[in-house]
Design brief:
Elements: E1 5-7, H1 9-16, H2 22-37, E2 40-43, H3 44-57, H4 64-74, E3 79-80, H5 84-97, H6 101-112, E4 117-120, E5 127-129, E6 138-144, E7 151-158
Length: 159
Amino acid sequence: MNDKIFVDTNILVYAHDLSSGDRHAKAAAIIENLWQDETGVISTQVLQEFYVTVTRKIKSPLKPAEARDIILNYLSWPVQANDPETTIRASEIEEKNNLSFWDALIIAAALRLQAKKIITEDLNPTTIHDMRHSTQPVFVFDERDKPDGSSSVSMRQDQ
């Protein structure tokens, strides 16, 4: 079985933003591989940020209906809702690791989906203490050298 890979908003945006040059080609290839391997996972936060960004913030904004159609396609991937448990977990990750709450929410969603990697441009390698387990395992986010230039962040449980 292939490991789940969490996709952050910026990668999803680049994959659908034709004006993002090399980033578009690289992100589109990543997303295509995730579709083929059936390993992509996302959160409601990613879908919400994607919608706002592609309809308002990119050089050639998409029409809302077009953005909705893209989001509907991604609903075939596992999607983590930002429910109260995910929010609490994110606040713990934020507090213990000096991250922004929004980055911690991405990590919490990835952990809830049991993703092995997060593909992003935003997160720096850092150590995350998973407060949900009584033994306090540590999830290490190691930046991998990727030919596409994005950060691929691996999560492994260290005892």
